[in-house]
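so ive been stuck on this for like two days lol. basically i have the seq below and the ligand is zinc ion, smiles is in there too. i just want the complex predicted, nothing fancy, no docking runs or whatever. if the output looks off dont worry ill sanity check it later, just need somthing to start from for the group meeting slides
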Amino acid sequence: MELRMPAELASGYRSRSQQARVVTEAWGRRELFCANCESRFLEPTPNNSQAVDLVCPRCAALFQLKAKGSRIGRIIDDGAYTAMLAAVREDRTPNLVLMRYDWPAWSVVDLVLIPHFAFPESAIVRRKPLAPTARRAGWVGCNIDLNHIAPEAQIPVVTASKPSPPAQVRARYNRLKPLREIKAIHRGWTLDVLNILRHLGRPEFTNEEVYAFDRALEALHPGNRHIRPKIRQQLQILRDSGLLLHIGNGRWSLV
Ligand SMILES: [Zn+2]
């Protein structure tokens, strides 16, 4: 993977955001590969308007590239809140590719891939409506909170200017694919529990240790009064998905 982007394309544009768009899109077309199949390149979609949208010519997987010249933080700006929430519920979100590039060198520093099936509703945070004085007064956008996305679903493609081998990226993506088979409306629960397990920071744990998060899960899923049975059910789903092992007697181990 060549990390230097085609900086010469920037010269035709005055605004930094237009320059970034043109340069990162051209780079994405040239260097990004599909994580869902063996395709070595992606193509631009016909109507990519706001973000850079790419599609795999072989398996039709969609990718959205979001690039910026600063560190990839915990909070990612996204589009309209209701549209994003509907996309999550209807399983229409693209794979998200987050890029940090160096400017003015125009080279890729960090790149993280989040599979399209790894977004729980809890990661979509409503922003305050735009002020009455704004051009789009009342419009409600959203942020994506990466703290609500399980660490293993934040797949490193480039880290500190060092690319990961494509085979490794595909292997990590493939390992998560069983989650894709869970219906989108149920998947949020599974992803939230997986995220909690990852934040326990231990390879082994008990039911009780996960129950300690019942309040947090209740806050994410208001209206569900049977939190503990739900947690046990999700642990079983994660086991069936190959992400967890049941050792016995309410003890579990991460795979
Ligand atoms: Zn593909």
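The domain at 184-254 is CATH 1.10.10.10 (Arc Repressor Mutant, subunit A). The mean pLDDT is 94.
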